[in-house]
Amino acid sequence: MGISERIKLNQRDMIVGVDASNLRGGGGTTHLVEVLRASQPHEHGFDQVIVWGGESTLKQMEDRPWLCKMHDPLLDRTLPLRLYWQRIMLDRLVRQERCDVLFVPGGSYSGSSRPFVTMCQNMLPFDWSETRRYGISWYTLKFLLVRWSQLTTFRQADGLIFLTKYAQTAISPFLNGTTGRIALIPHGVDERFRKKPKLQRPISSYSAESPFRLLYVSPVAPYKHQWHVMEAVHKLRQMGLPLVLELVGPSYHSVKRFVKALAKWDPNGEWIQYRGEIPFIHLHEIYQEAELFVYASSCENMPNILLEAMAAGLPIASSNRGPMPEMLDKAAVYFNPEHPVEIANAIKTLVDDPHLREEKSWASYEAAKAYTWRRCAQETFDFLAQVAQRASA
User: Fold this and answer.
1) Higher pLDDT, 330 or 391
2) Gyration radius of the chain's alpha carbons
3) Would the CATH topology of 3-188+372-392 be identical to that of 191-368?
4) 229, pLDDT greater than 90
5) Mean pLDDT for the stretch of residues 102-110
């Protein structure tokens, strides 16, 4: 780049392009929507943010003077067509709009635009012990393809964002000396979920008519272990504890195993309440009804669900795997998510001791204060600016 071109670049605000072609829902879409809602791009030298995505994804983004939402009908179609769009059409659009940096939050990119920044948001493709739970299936093949695609993208990226130290430590050995910048930028949590911990009552004040409510929010999947939680709570009820278990989340996988466990541990539907998927806009109300949160996942990057439970001021019995100890530190009682006895012991430890529940709930509530979408947005756009400026130099 010549001197005159550098002067021209410095005289105008920058433009960031965002490839949302593979964001169809879930945590990835929530992340981008919330980051854009909380952003002030001008503070970081950006005059415009251009997002390419499907109609349903773009509709979730609030209008802003600096936000340009670009829709292409191909991005409402199947994955092969969306990959074709990304590989063939995106680079031309990035050049046409004179973007200074491309942000690819979905984690996979096969184009030639530079510089670009991507994110690591899914650990499942990188944990073979967890992938094997899906057996010989299309899902296993999909995870292997995603692993190859994302590792290739990570190695070529000018900037790579991790959500947790756990993920960075797990993925870094596969990056083979990449020269791109790396940043650790955690997600935030919607302010609707924040609620100070409630007064903790002794278990003797609960009864069959007014039971102690356990809550587990998560999609049904092999690594979520809802069936182990059911068995654990069944053991505690046999001890006479007045507990009910509320399960919230869609049934994506392992539906037969889930239904079989329901029939085995609560054949009459007396104490397990499966509510299926609840709209995100109403999810905070579910947390407020609970007495204790259980999180039994064995494979995560940075679960928004856990952040929501922390912000809701609930005492938490948590899996000891993945980033959960990093996020919660001393604010939870931990267990091995594959051992129902350990799950039962962790829940009982909290149920039996209201003082411990109070201590843990306040600790998790205070820890959640560090996770805001404003902070996430600021650090994300600051990192995008650093990468763009480094490339221009």
Assistant:
1) 330
2) 23
3) yes
4) yes
5) 94
**Smallest Cα–Cα separation from 288: which of 318, 320, 269, 311?**
311
- The DSSP bridge partners found for residue 319 are 335
Whether omega for the bond prior to residue 115 falls within 30 degrees of 0, making it cis, is yes
Residue 225: burial class (beta carbons within 10 Å; 0-12, 13-18, 19+): buried
CATH 3.10.580.10 fits 191-368, yes or no: no
Q: For residues 127-135, give the mean pLDDT.
A: 92
Q: What is the mean pLDDT of residues 96-117?
A: 95
Burial level of 331, CB count in 10 A (0-12/13-18/19+)? buried
Q: Tell me, which fold does domain 3-188+372-392 have in CATH?
A: Rossmann fold (3.40.50)
CA distance 99 to 95: 6
Q: CA triplet 381, 326, 233: central angle to 5 degrees?
A: 125
- Rounded Cα gap, residues 217 and 361, in angstroms: 17
pLDDT digits (tens, 9 = 90+) for 234-293: 999 999 999 999 999 998 888 999 999 999 999 999 999 999 999 989 999 999 999 999
For the entire predicted model, the pTM comes to: 0.92
| Exposure b/e, 334-362, CB count within 10 A at least 16 = b | bbbbeebebbbbbbbebbebbeebebbbb
Task: Report helix, strand or coil for 256.
Answer: helix
| Res 8 pLDDT > 50 | no
Best CA proximity match to 243, nearest among 291, 313, 289, 296: 291
Q: Which amino acid appears at position 378 of this protein?
A: Q
Q: Report the C-alpha gap between 129 and 321 in whole angstroms.
A: 13
Query: Rounded to an integer, what distance in angstroms lies between the CA atom of residue 8 and that of residue 322?
Result: 46
d(CA 49, CA 216): 37
Q: In 3-state terms, what secondary structure has residue 366? A: helix
What is the rounded average pLDDT for all residues in the chain?
A: 93
Report residue 352: phi and psi, to 5°.
-75, -20
- C-alpha dihedral sign at 93, 99, 102, 103: negative
Answer whether residue 10 shows pLDDT above 60: no
> Backbone phi, then psi, for 67, in 5-degree steps?
-100, 125
Domain ranges of the chain: 3-188+372-392, 191-368
